[in-house]
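Backbone-to-sequence.
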């Protein structure tokens, strides 16, 4: 439906709008033409008005001087007052167009209509005026040669080039950059195909801001004449730089939320911050943390030179040639430097390199000043790294462009640094707690194995490599009476300093109970009670971290009999490697984990050939996120298949083969190679329960020591043998047995079938007895009692004579 016959908004069909009245007037103001529409509108016939002055129908006050108005223009539009034939005056809207007809004298075509009437040229002119003068959308028209025909005022404001200056120029002459060239190629494609383009985003520079790329959203379509011939291309553009940058900031913040703080590692977290900011925010960035904070001290005051440790840097150039300090090196910043100033105030600062504060800083640091000149840095931004009310360090960003950092850049940098600061503080706190726990744990674990003859031992402790922190794994090698040795490996449930402290309490308890010489199953029963008590204690004290339990394996090896007695509490089974390389995982009853209570622990006895390997470990060695336990145990067997290797090398081989990736749990490993006492270094004598046997025991001991070349020890040894055998005959039950062992010390043992433990007491002057154990304690280095399944053994040790010690 045409505009002429379109219905009004009410919905009813409107009456046809009559065509406008037209008249032709020459430059002298003589009416030379009069249309029938003018006759209908004004009542004058053509015969009445043609040849008359325009004043015949135009009121004199509103009559335009056609000979000289409107000053060289070819068009005008105005409101006229026209006299009707009956004498009344009509206000009309008139549009005048100058044209040349039948000679060189121009004439005016005057089109008139009542206000609101139909004037196509007037409407078109109004539309064009609005489009080119007032429209907010930037628009330009390019001819078939892709030269600018006309642009509107919005496009002139966008490009900084006026309509007159851009006329006849190509787009690449109005804008610069590869984006402008790509846009002009798009216009050529529209001109050739006759099809409009979809919206495109281009990066280009204009004379408004020649130093920076702006992002423009563009659209182009062909314009045609009424015959369909393409005359050129019309294109629109809008500057979406701010919207684009806002979107980029949101993308960057979203990326930062996923990239920064992926681990609890200070160095890596700082590097993640540096990587996110380059190149979208700066050309160079370095992240420095206070030395005091890394040591765990409080920050500030920032009155003098401040020591900052470089934890990360990044550059737009490969290899970071701008770096004056490498990672983990310390730099000193004076108090008037931007870095220290922003840390002291707690606020970000932005400066040009030419600003007084930056010039003063660089003047005192010629090396840094030369680096700034070499790399053409123009502006600097320093953002304090602060979290939980504490200043941790500073992030320094540098730009080469003349355009300094904006407020939006500062806000974005602060947001990124704030997010990283929390992660850095978490990493710092974690590192401090982990270091404290690791120090505690390493101080609690044995630094070297005590001298003993039963086994050759090597061990390893590996803290957790994942984010779970270290745990409560421990191990120990404990010399026992009778040249025996106790081997223990345990694992406290949980991680961190609480697990390390709990581990220390359990290890102390195990060593204390080991001195009592309890069998492995009884040892685990006592430790089980201790764990229950510790858990109840934690619950009563309402501690944040309760004692959740532990696992343990305890083995006692006797080199005289080559018998190893083992019991475990919910722990992985030990491995035994025979001298020929056969690896066996002992089918040892698992037992419940420590802390459950009221459940028995079953021991196993196994005879080990001399040179066998006994391997104890925690579950961190065989646990895996992928695969299954059987595969890990098979790996363990393969790693242990060469028992002839030095134990230190074998430990490293086992860890390397089974822990090819960082483990989320601690690992404790003990490998012991068994030894056996030579038969000629152990002497055993059975005794009857007869007091007369005491003299025989003394004689036998003297004879045995003489054979060993230890005559100097005969006096003390016969006194000790006499007292121990006498006590056994008087207070115990048969069978009785006396055993002498030549080891690192001279060991004397008396075994009987009674479970009664002898106690040393102080005898009165009138007492005839009660001084035996006191005498034994005074004559020997140490003595004690250990219980067996059939009774007990009272033992004592005395140092070997110097010559015998050398032979041993």
């Amino acid at each position: 439906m045409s505009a002429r016959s379109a219905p009004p908004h009410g919905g009813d069909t409107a009456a046809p709008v009559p065509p406008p009245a037209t008249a032709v007037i020459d430059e002298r103001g003589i009416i030379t033409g009069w249309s029938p529409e003018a006759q209908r509108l004004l009542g004058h016939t053509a015969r009445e008005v043609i040849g008359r002055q325009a004043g015949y129908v135009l009121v004199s006050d509103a009559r335009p001087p056609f000979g000289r108005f409107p000053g060289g223009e070819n068009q005008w539009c105005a409101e006229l007052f026209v006299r009707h034939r009956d004498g009344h005056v009509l206000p009309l809207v008139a549009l005048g167009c100058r044209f040349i007809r039948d000679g060189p004298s121009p004439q005016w075509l005057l089109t008139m209509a009542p206000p609101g009437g139909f004037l196509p040229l007037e409407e078109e002119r109004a539309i064009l005026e609005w489009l080119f003068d007032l429209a907010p959308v930037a628009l330009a028209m390019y001819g078939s040669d892709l030269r600018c025909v006309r642009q509107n005022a919005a496009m002139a404001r966008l490009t900084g080039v006026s309509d007159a200056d851009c006329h006849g120029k190509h787009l690449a002459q109005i804008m610069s950059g590869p984006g402008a060239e790509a846009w002009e190629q798009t216009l050529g494609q529209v001109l050739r195909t006759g099809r409009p383009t979809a919206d495109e985003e281009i990066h280009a520079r204009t004379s408004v801001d020649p130093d920076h790329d702006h992002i423009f959203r563009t659209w182009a379509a062909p314009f045609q004449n009424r015959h369909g011939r393409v005359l050129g291309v019309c294109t629109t553009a809008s500057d979406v730089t701010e919207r684009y940058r806002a979107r980029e900031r949101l993308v960057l913040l979203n990326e930062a939320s996923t990239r920064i703080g992926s681990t609890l590692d200070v160095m890596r977290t700082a590097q993640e911050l540096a990587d996110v900011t380059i190149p979208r925010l700066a050309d160079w960035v370095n992240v420095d943390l206070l030395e005091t904070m890394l040591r765990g001290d409080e920050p500030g005051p920032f009155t003098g030179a401040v020591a900052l440790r470089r934890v990360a840097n990044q550059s737009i150039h490969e290899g970071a040639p701008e770096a004056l300090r490498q990672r983990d090196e310390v730099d000193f910043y004076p108090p008037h430097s931007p870095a220290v100033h922003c840390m002291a105030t707690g606020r970000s600062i932005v400066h040009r390199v030419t600003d007084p504060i930056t010039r003063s800083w660089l003047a005192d640091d010629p090396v840094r000043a030369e680096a700034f000149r070499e790399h053409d840095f123009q502006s600097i931004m320093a953002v304090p790294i602060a979290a939980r009310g504490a200043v941790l360090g500073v992030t320094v960003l540098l730009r080469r462009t003349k355009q300094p950092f904006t407020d939006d850049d500062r806000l974005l940098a602060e947001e990124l640094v704030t997010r990283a600061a929390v992660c850095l503080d978490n990493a710092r706190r974690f590192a401090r707690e982990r270091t404290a726990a690791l120090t505690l744990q390493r101080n609690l674990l044995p630094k070297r194995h005590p001298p003993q003859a039963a086994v050759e031992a090597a061990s390893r402790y590996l803290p957790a490599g994942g984010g779970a922190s270290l745990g409560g794994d421990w191990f120990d090698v404990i010399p026992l009476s009778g040249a025996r040795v106790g081997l223990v490996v345990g694992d406290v449930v949980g991680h961190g300093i609480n697990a390390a402290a709990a581990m220390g309490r359990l290890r102390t308890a195990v060593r204390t109970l080991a001195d009592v010489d309890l069998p492995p199953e009884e040892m685990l029963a006592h430790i089980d009670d201790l764990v229950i008590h510790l858990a109840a204690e934690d619950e009563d004290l309402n501690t944040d971290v309760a004692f959740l339990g532990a696992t343990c394996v305890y083995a006692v090896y006797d080199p005289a009999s080559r018998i190893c007695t083992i019991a475990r509490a919910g722990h992985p089974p030990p491995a035994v490697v025979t001298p020929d390389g056969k690896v066996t995982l002992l089918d040892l009853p698992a037992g419940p984990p420590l802390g459950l209570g009221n459940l028995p622990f079953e021991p196993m006895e196994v005879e080990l050939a001399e040179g066998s390997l006994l391997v104890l470990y925690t579950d961190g060695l065989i646990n895996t996120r992928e695969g299954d336990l059987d595969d890990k145990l098979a790996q363990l067997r393969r790693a242990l298949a060469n028992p002839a290797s030095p134990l230190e090398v074998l430990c490293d081989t086992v860890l390397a083969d089974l822990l090819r990736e960082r483990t989320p749990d601690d690992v404790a490993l003990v490998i012991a190679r068994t030894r056996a006492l030579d038969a000629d270094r152990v002497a055993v004598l059975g005794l009857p329960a007869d007091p007369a046997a005491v003299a025989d025991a003394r004689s036998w001991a003297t004879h045995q020591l003489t054979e060993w070349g230890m005559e100097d020890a005969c006096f003390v040894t016969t006194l000790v043998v006499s007292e121990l055998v006498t006590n056994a005959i008087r207070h115990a039950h048969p069978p009785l047995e006396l055993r002498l062992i030549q080891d690192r010390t001279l060991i004397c043992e008396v075994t009987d079938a009674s479970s009664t433990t002898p106690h040393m007491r102080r005898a009165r002057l009138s007492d005839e007895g009660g001084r035996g154990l006191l005498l034994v304690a005074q004559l020997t280095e140490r003595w004690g009692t250990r219980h067996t399944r059939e009774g007990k053994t009272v033992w004592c040790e005395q140092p070997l004579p110097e010559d015998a010690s050398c032979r041993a």
